[in-house]
Write a structure and sequence with these properties.
Layout (H helix, E strand, L loop, with lengths): L19 E3 L2 E7 L18 E5 L18 E9 L8 E6 L2 E2 L1 E6 L2 E7 L5 E4 L9 E9 L27 E2 L3 E6 L3 E10 L4 E9 L8 E9 L2 E9 L4 E7 L21 E9 L2 E10 L4 E4 L2 E4 L2 E2 L2 E6 L13 H13 L4 E4 L6 H10 L2 E5 L8 H18 L5 E5 L14 H17 L19 E4 L5 H8 L3 H5 L23 E7 L18 H17 L3 E7 L22 H9 L1
Parallel strand pairs: 23-24, 23-29, 24-25, 25-26, 27-28, 28-29
Antiparallel strand pairs: 1-12, 2-3, 2-4, 4-10, 5-9, 5-12, 6-11, 7-8, 7-10, 13-14, 14-17, 15-16, 15-18, 18-19, 20-21, 21-22
InterPro entries: Beta-gal/glucu_dom_sf, Galactose-bd-like_sf, GH, GH2_Domain-Containing, Glyco_hydro_2_cat, Glyco_hydro_2_N, Ig-like_fold, Ig-like_GH2
Family: Belongs to the glycosyl hydrolase 2 family.
Organism: Paenibacillus tritici
Length: 588
Amino acid sequence: MTTKAYIKDYPRPQFVRGGWQTLNGEWGFRFDDQNTGEHGKWQEQLNATHTITVPYTYETQASGIGIQEFHPRVWYNKAVLIPGEASGKRVILHFQAVDYHAKVWVNGILAGSHQGGYAAFSFDITPYLISGKENSITLKAEDSNDCTQPRGKQRWTKDNFECFYVQSTGIWQTVWLEYVEEQRLDSVKITPDIDRSCVSFDVQLHGLETAAGKILLEAAVTFKGVPVKTTSQWMDRPRQTIEVDLLHEASGPWKRSYWSPAQPNLYDVEFTLYVGGKVVDQVHSYFGMRKVSIQNGKVLLNNTPVYQRIILDQGYWTESHLTPPSEEAIVADIDYILAMGYNSVRKHMKIEDARFLYWCDVKGLLVWSEMAATFEFHDRAVESFTNEWLEIVRQQYNHPSIITWVPFNESWGVPNILHDQRQQKFTEGIYHLTKAIDPYRPVITNDGWEHTVSDILTLHDYVEMGDGFLSRYGDNKEAIVNKETTCNQWKYAFAEGYAYQGQPIIISEFGGIAFQSDKGWGYGHQVASEEEFLNRFASLTQAIKSVDYICGYCYTQLTDVQQEINGLLTEAREPKIPLDKIKEINLK
């Protein structure tokens, strides 16, 4: 159950090349609370005071440091020997995620900077390298408690509170090197079209202007190892679109091989770039032939209504916090979700590791991709949020498992959206910018309540029992969507000036049931036994499924997270309830 070019632990499985080197492992590390490092030329000689295990942040036990107090500036350094196979090639330094503002030096020379804690970024460091010697890579990461920066569930106070947890500072995803030619593919945006039985590849090339000869791009599509179609196109400008017609290739084993949770069929594609008849770049990717649409108040997958059984997942681990401890841990979480009868995951307040999305693609788990929130509305928040969100949408676009974009949640960062037209216009702008990049997926602009322009009406409600849910929602659709009543006793479904347009309705947070404990909290009363838990879980789940105008639900949540103990699994991934009993209720 992998794609043709799968490489274990490869950090970017949607765009695979052979020449790469991980830089995870031991780095030198130093705190810089007084911000004296640059003046003291730490970029040239760090004199590290700690050793840290990358990609785990200093706040985690997995890092080898495990200090949870906030430090606004941290430094990293590693000596790297570039292998002989990279001779004559460009060397690209990749960071999958650094929180929050990163500056990178190579051999003391500034190579670049990036702002945003969740998007991947890279620099061509070739000009700064010294051949045949170890090269010094130094990174300074600046973080803050500023609530105008996208921070998700990271606390901005000294201690954890409510549903906010220990912050994550600095490198928290894989660091790696890639060896490429001057002429190469920078990116390929893949758009399937099942109605026309074709797929388009929007290709961005690098180095076209310095090519010594004509440039030809070949795209070879296969399905389960069987050739489907190969298309070639001469490239005379940096950006071109190649469309591959699959209609007349539909007599083989790939006939109508759509991607879905029941059959997560993936096509492999190999891109080969020729300059003057010589191969200069090869990239392996994949795609799923699938379509997400909305019609008559339903979400459709491949033109057929899909009822979404979603689980909320915050992606925290005890020893490593936001960083998955291994690829095996990523796969295990997905397998737990599927074993409990869920077909979707709402990745909450976190942009997850690309390998998680890869395995959702492979195993057929639908994904709601949700941005980490800001918590104040300000011009700075508008700018930082917008820039990073657009990076993320572009980076995640090719994953067939992602079927919904969720840029805002529960009015976080837009606290006065009910009345404030500036905050309303901000969410409208993000909606339309997202649609400009990706018109093919639904966008939820304020998950939970007080929606503005939104393709799905999602509601959050932590009522404790099914009869309470039915009394609130059973016959009250018109009153809720027309704002004659609140949807959960205290919030309206839409912001002022916005009205229901027939959108699908999903209960996108409910449950949150916790067992009795004095070490944390859940929603409502804590339960004392497995029987009490299952009665309440079944009561709520069946009540939601019995309401005909609701087309899906999202249970809170997959695992415990620090002080929040309402997971179906503990933070150590120990099931609290037999998985088959949860599955039986979900599929009943």
